[in-house]
């Protein structure tokens, strides 16, 4: 069962809907890069341009033989299931099953995209937060693989 703790403090300010991102409480660059390295090292993942109008975002896609999740486990009918925004933002968008999306929102870790079927997840501010954000990324990955916990 997917579960995460409540996020401490107030939610960051966001902008959107296009581009949709985080405006303050920006994750330190070292944590953004660590998160990116973890994301890109997942089995079956390949790097390709994002399918959203945020060309500076770094996207991960899942090879068809690894990704057997439902259509809404991918962004815009592509193989992309997550992308990390540029360093001045530090948040990420990813797909999640409905219950996980609700839990992430209620725990204060992000908000649903206003017009797309993705979840904005706030960038991690410290070592503890990167582990929570990583659990959210792994839930998205499991969803895309057809193995989510719902």
Automatic annotation (TrEMBL):
**InterPro entries hit by this protein:** Luciferase, Luciferase_dom
What protein name applies here?
Luciferase family protein
The annotated region (Disordered) lies at 1-23
All copies of domain Luciferase, residue ranges: 79-137
Q: Which Pfam families match?
A: Luciferase
- Report the superkingdom from the record: Bacteria
Q: Where is the composition biased (Basic and acidic residues)?
A: 1-10
């Amino acid at each position: 069962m997917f579960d995460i703790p409540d996020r401490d403090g107030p939610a960051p300010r966001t902008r959107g809907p296009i581009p949709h991102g985080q405006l303050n409480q920006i994750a330190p660059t070292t944590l953004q890069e660590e998160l990116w390295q973890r994301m890109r090292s997942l089995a079956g993942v390949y790097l390709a341009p994002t399918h959203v109008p945020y060309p500076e975002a770094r996207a991960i896609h899942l090879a068809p033989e690894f990704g057997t999740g439902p259509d809404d486990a991918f962004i815009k009918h592509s193989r992309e299931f997550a992308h990390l925004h540029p360093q001045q933002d530090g948040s990420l968008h990813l797909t999640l099953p409905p219950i996980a999306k609700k839990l992430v929102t209620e725990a204060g870790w992000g908000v649903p995209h206003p017009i797309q079927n993705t979840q904005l997840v706030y960038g991690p501010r410290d070592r503890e937060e990167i582990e929570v954000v990583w659990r959210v990324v792994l839930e998205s990955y499991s969803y895309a693989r057809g193995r989510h916990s719902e």
